[in-house]
Amino acid sequence: MKKVLYLLVAIVLLTGCSCTANMGNTPTKKVEEYLNKYQTNDDDVLSDLNDVLTNDTTLTDSERNDYSDFMKTHYRDMQYEIKDETIDGDTATVDAEVTVRNYADAVNEANDYRLNNADKFDDENTFASYRLDRLKEVTDTETYTITFHLTKENEEWKIDDLSDDDLRKISGLYGVTDVNTTTPGDTDDTTTDDGKTDDKDGVIGDAIDDISDGIKDTADDMNDNTNDDSNNNQTTNS
Length: 238
Prior knowledge:
Layout: H1 18-23, H2 27-39, H3 43-54, H4 61-77, E1 79-88, E2 91-101, H5 104-116, H6 127-136, E3 141-153, E4 156-159, H7 164-171, E5 190-191, E6 197-198, H8 203-237
Antiparallel strand pairs: 1-2, 2-3, 3-4, 5-6
């Protein structure tokens, strides 16, 4: 997929100064870079967000713009605090407290409303728009502790893939339940092996996996860029 929605400041390594480069190569610094990219609406993240929304055919142009603004604000408003760092050889963990708006109740309530009021939605009054309006009303925040696992490769610390639960915490979607009841008139639900259906209508419901994949891709890109910069520095210094 893309690297999406998810934000990490560009890594700046000063050419010809190995001491400066090394200062950024700590587990804590890598986690800070990862989370800062959310807060700063990094260009790569915004490009990926635009790609995801463009490919979501359930949204109108107006809804795409609204959702884009909504997600940008969500990540800018995210707060975090590094609580602990533990290094054991070539592995490390960093505990961070992340505070975000919690959209789970709003998403679950919107999904329940749709299941019981299918006749309320049509091409003019879409469920995607209704659910986005409910999300915009959310002001409650939740603080989660996320343990980042890192591995040192070629003298560079890299963030391991986060769990799906941790990715949903960052996106404010932790606690969203699957929709397992078919809505009358729905044509966008997909049937699973157990005969139940998963909600595929609207960007919040079906973008969770896209967002999760995008965050993982962004972390991988950050690691790759760090290695490229380090190699360039070594070449310059030599």
